[in-house]
Recover the amino acids of this structure.
């Protein structure tokens, strides 16, 4: 166990040491205080000059022929000018502001020599002109021989000015056309109102297109990350460079205490940095009146900056700061000098920038796989919160949970790297030395950090896979079940076994592939047959206090339909047999064995059970799944074999599959309301079931005779 | 029973291609309590690796080390508690004062705040640190740093001191401080292992000398025994002669 008093000493010393360093203070305090005002003021100036520039810009327009200009377009533009003048006067009479009147300004169009005949497209492509106008045809219709012009505008959408020129011309022609329609209707003595059955008015609630609103969350997240860099380097590579590492390591202190103290300090500084950054954003927005720039305010000023969201944003930045601190410490522990550490940190920042950048794109939403995208999910969450959007509780849970999981894996990795002899004394730490198979010692089980790291990598992959599978076929549920049955053996068994072979870990011992005593098989079977009873009651209990998601019923129905499509035997393989074997091998074999190497049995079982629950990606089922995980973990620990758990798991899932195919089973045990769920089971079922369940537990409780886990 | 007992100690390193390199090869020696044992040898003889294994910083590939009754690999923390470790290039925390450093290491050795403060004050007095105890270590002179470092190594009053080139690169005055300290510690009954390149130092101070070559002991004994063995007077000549006998090419070079 970690010695708290000693960890506190390390923490206090490191904090004092870091805070006395002017470089820490510079990075932590000065940068955010200066950065945001500069950014926003600068941003506003650049934006407003850009807008003004574009507004006053003259556009050059090319024509197919001189007559197109002189006979068609110029008269139309002249006509538009007079229409504009009329509308402007009308608006002024209605009391419009100067800003609104500016809307009626005539676009400035500059002409080039319109003798580019035939090469107009080339001229637009080569940006000789912003826009090209082709009068494609002029037709006359009806008894009054009224004209219809077909005008084609050539422009390049990726060139903003070209696009603007085309927009302006398009609007001018629209205006003229509208005016002409009204004139023609009046000539026929028809009220123009008849052709306007619907009038649409748009009201934008936020000022559109503000780039800063998208970028500020990214910067906030990046500043939190960069806040961890300097202290992380200082407490690891810095310690080595100053020659204090050796005297630290000869102290009677476990590495985990050292790394925890250091990691807490780096996290503290990163969190303080995040708070200062957030404070600076707030003050800048509040004092500077930049709410518009942050894309946060209503056009009529009723939205405002969501100050209530600030503590929430800060609370969400905490796990991110923790995650990045752990990652930075792990990375910097490999470096001997400050300079080397800086080189190692750079790729990490780029790696964080990538998902962060994706998240900063306007189209990216906080949903699906983005919920568990490292760093990116935090950028999205921050953006949602700062724009005052409502964020569902489940989204918070996913973002925070996944970030904490990654952070835990990173801390474990850091502890592993920091204490390693090859890293501590090597003249240079090369990746080849870290990955050279010949240098690995044989070990009976993987380290906890390696297992945690694998679980952390697998988590987003599995989440993504599940989402993809549900999208891939029309018939989502059966597709997902097939896909799961194929991928479970690869990702949860094959890949860990390959990794263990590579790291020279005793696979058979880790996965506990050995025959158990008969009483464990019997115990596992009894538990597997009756575990649904406590599970079902737990659901009822949970439903009473927490409620059930409304979509649950639909999901259950979709599940039943999907199962029916698969047919009983395939459903049994996909739902009971494959998961029964693969999940046991991964969660109880790989993960629990690794955890038992470092932790006491019960915390190890609880941890592996919680991860087992999280991997089922359905928060409503978390407690029940994790509860089953505890029982299965206990089975594996006491029996020292994977098989009793496999039997229990397969029977439990198999029974659920059977019931799905035979709904009458529920009636047979006395459940009246077959359609309703969850409901209390009849008392006699609970009673008999509990006796069998407890018997199963009692049978498997005394530990197996061979040597007990040394933990 | 000897204070330090090294038995058939071997440490194998691997380079990046996985090739073996035996830094320490079947090394055995004993040091009795209250003695200074000099570990001498050319560069790359395995001195530093041996000292790191002795202080439980490195795990031996094979062999057994017992210090103060504890075995390396089994009683890591007891070993670390029994030992003070000092090298010439041991750094100090630049932004902490000597007093802060001593208190910090006291706490790392398991003292509570009160004990750590008391022990730090005792050492500040004994080592003559009082005048600069509150100055940040970054501003201290080399000699002042060295005194602080010695105090740090003594923080838990360990029975064994490991000194890896403690005088490397020091001026005469600082050198004297260290050597006087080592002799005073022997008087106080501590066991000391001294690894050094300065043969005069070893000649004057060590009770026993082990000549290390290619990871093993090439010769061992008191200075008189070594003189007899080699038939020459000065330790530097003894040193060259023995190494040459072991490895003719290297001895010449």
């Amino acid at each position: 166990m970690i010695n708290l008093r000693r960890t506190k000493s390390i923490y206090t010393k490191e904090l004092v040491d870091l805070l006395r360093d002017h470089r820490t203070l510079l990075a932590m305090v000065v940068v955010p205080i200066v950065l945001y005002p500069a950014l926003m003021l600068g941003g506003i100036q650049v934006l407003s000059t850009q807008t003004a520039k574009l507004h006053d810009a003259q556009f050059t327009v090319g024509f197919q022929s001189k007559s197109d200009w002189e006979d068609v377009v110029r008269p139309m533009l002249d006509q538009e000018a007079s229409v504009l003048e009329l509308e402007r006067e009308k608006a002024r009479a209605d009391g419009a502001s100067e800003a609104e009147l500016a809307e009626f300004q005539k676009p400035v169009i500059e002409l080039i020599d319109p003798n580019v005949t035939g090469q107009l497209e080339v001229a637009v492509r080569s940006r000789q002109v912003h826009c090209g106008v082709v009068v494609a045809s002029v037709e006359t219709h009806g008894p009054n021989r009224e004209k219809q012009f077909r005008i084609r505008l050539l422009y390049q959408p990726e060139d903003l000015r070209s696009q603007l020129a085309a927009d302006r011309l398009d609007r001018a022609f629209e205006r003229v056309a509208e005016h002409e329609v009204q004139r023609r209707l009046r000539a026929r003595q028809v009220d123009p109102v008849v052709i306007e059955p619907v009038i649409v008015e748009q009201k934008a609630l936020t000022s559109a297109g503000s780039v800063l609103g998208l970028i500020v969350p990214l910067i906030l997240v990046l500043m939190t990350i960069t806040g961890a860099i300097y202290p992380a380097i200082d407490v690891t590579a810095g310690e080595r460079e100053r020659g204090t590492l050796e005297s630290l390591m000869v102290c009677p202190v476990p590495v985990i205490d050292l790394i925890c103290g250091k990691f807490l300090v780096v996290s503290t500084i990163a969190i303080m940095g995040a708070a200062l950054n957030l404070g600076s954003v707030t003050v800048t927005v509040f004092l500077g009146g930049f709410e518009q720039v942050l894309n946060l305010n209503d056009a009529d000023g009723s939205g405002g900056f969501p100050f209530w969201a600030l503590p929430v944003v800060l609370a969400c930045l905490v796990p991110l700061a923790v995650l990045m601190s752990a990652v930075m410490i792990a990375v910097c522990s490999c470096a001997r000098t400050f300079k080397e550490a800086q080189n190692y940190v750079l790729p990490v920042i780029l790696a964080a920038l990538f998902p962060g950048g994706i998240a900063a794109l306007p189209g990216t939403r906080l949903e699906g796989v983005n919920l568990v995208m490292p760093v990116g999910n935090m950028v999205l969450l921050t953006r949602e919160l700062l724009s005052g959007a409502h964020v569902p509780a489940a989204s918070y849970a996913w973002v925070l949970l996944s970030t904490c999981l990654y952070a835990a894996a990173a801390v474990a990795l850091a502890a592993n790297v920091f204490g390693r002899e090859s890293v501590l004394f090597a003249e240079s730490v090369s990746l080849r030395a870290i990955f050279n198979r010949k240098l690995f010692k044989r070990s009976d089980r993987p380290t906890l950090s390696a297992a945690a790291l694998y679980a952390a990598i697998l988590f987003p992959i599995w989440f993504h896979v599940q989402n993809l599978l549900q999208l891939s076929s029309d018939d989502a549920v059966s597709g997902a079940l097939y896909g799961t049955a194929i991928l479970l053996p690869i990702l949860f068994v094959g890949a860990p076994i390959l990794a263990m072979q590579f790291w020279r870990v005793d696979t058979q011992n880790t996965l506990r592939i050995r025959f158990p005593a008969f009483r464990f098989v019997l115990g596992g079977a009894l538990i597997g047959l009756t575990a649904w009873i406590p599970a079902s009651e737990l659901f009822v209990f949970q439903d009473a206090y927490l409620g059930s998601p409304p979509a649950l019923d639909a999901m259950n129905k979709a599940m039943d339909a999907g199962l029916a499509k698969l047919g009983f035997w395939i459903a049994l393989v996909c739902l009971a047999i494959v998961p029964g074997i693969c999940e046991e091998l991964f969660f109880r074999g790989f993960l629990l064995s690794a955890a038992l190497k470092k932790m006491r049995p019960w915390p190890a079982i609880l941890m592996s059970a919680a991860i087992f629950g999280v991997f089922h990606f359905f928060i409503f089922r978390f407690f029940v799944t994790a509860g089953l995980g505890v029982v299965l973990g206990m089975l594996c620990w006491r029996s020292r074999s994977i098989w009793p758990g496999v039997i229990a798991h397969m029977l439990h899932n198999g029974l659920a599959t059977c019931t799905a195919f035979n709904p009458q089973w529920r009636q047979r045990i006395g459940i009246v309301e077959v359609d309703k769920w969850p409901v209390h089971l009849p008392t006699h079922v609970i009673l008999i079931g509990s006796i069998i369940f407890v018997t199963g537990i009692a049978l498997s409780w005394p530990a197996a005779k061979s040597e007990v886990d040394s933990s | 029973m000897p204070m330090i007992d090294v038995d058939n100690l071997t440490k194998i390193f691997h380079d990046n291609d996985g090739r073996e390199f035996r830094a320490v090869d079947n090394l055995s020696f004993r040091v009795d309590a209250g003695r200074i044992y000099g570990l001498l040898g050319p560069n790359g003889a395995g001195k530093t690796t041996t000292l790191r294994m002795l202080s439980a910083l490195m795990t031996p590939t094979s062999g057994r080390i017992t210090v103060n009754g504890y075995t390396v690999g089994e009683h890591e923390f007891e070993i670390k508690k029994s030992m003070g470790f000092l090298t010439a290039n041991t750094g100090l925390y630049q932004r902490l004062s000597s007093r802060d450093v001593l208190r910090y290491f006291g706490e790392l050795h398991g003292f509570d705040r009160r004990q750590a403060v008391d022990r730090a004050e005792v050492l500040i007095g004994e080592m003559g640190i009082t005048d600069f105890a509150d100055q940040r270590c970054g501003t201290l002179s080399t000699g002042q740093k060295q005194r602080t470092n010695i105090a740090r190594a003594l923080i838990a009053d360990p029975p064994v001191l490991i000194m890896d080139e403690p005088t490397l690169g020091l001026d005469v005055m600082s050198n004297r401080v260290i050597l006087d300290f080592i002799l005073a510690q022997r008087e106080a009954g501590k066991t000391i292992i001294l690894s050094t390149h300065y043969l005069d130092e070893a000649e004057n101070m060590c009770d026993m000398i082990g000549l290390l070559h290619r990871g093993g002991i090439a010769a061992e004994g008191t200075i008189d025994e070594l003189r007899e063995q080699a038939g020459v007077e000065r330790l530097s000549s003894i040193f060259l002669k023995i190494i040459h006998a072991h490895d003719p090419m290297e001895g010449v070079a």
